[in-house]
Amino acid sequence: MRKPKTGSDPLYFAINIDLFGDGIVMFEYAHMDETLTMEEIEARYAPEWVLIAEPETDDMQRLLRGKVVCHGPDGDELLRKATELKLDHVAVRYLGEWPEDMVLIL
Predict the structure, then answer these.
(1) Could you write out the DSSP letters of every residue in the chain?
(2) For residue range 66-81, what is the model confidence (pLDDT) as tens digits?
(3) What is the tally of structural domains in the chain?
């Protein structure tokens, strides 16, 4: 992540939460005024979970671009953060590799 500009940069802030003292950061906020393509998001944030505001999709509802609000290793924490921030329209994506034996139920 880039460092905030000197002075005030109200759209960028980072919070590193080490809840259990084990050195694991729960999530970080990102610079929210920058719209990124999914390729750019994957390049910057893989293999983490990302919370994307203002997601843009194609006709098949495939995610094309959006603004990364926060990212981290815990998807549940990002969903809680989306609720806390009262974001209207978001997407949450995991950018890592899924285990081969994992089954997804829709």
Answers:
(1) -PPPPSS--TT-------TTSSS----EE--TT-EEEHHHHHHHHTTSEEEEEEEEE-TT--EEEEEEEEEES-HHHHHHHHHHHT-SSEEEEE-SPPPTT-----
(2) 999 888 888 888 888 8
(3) 1
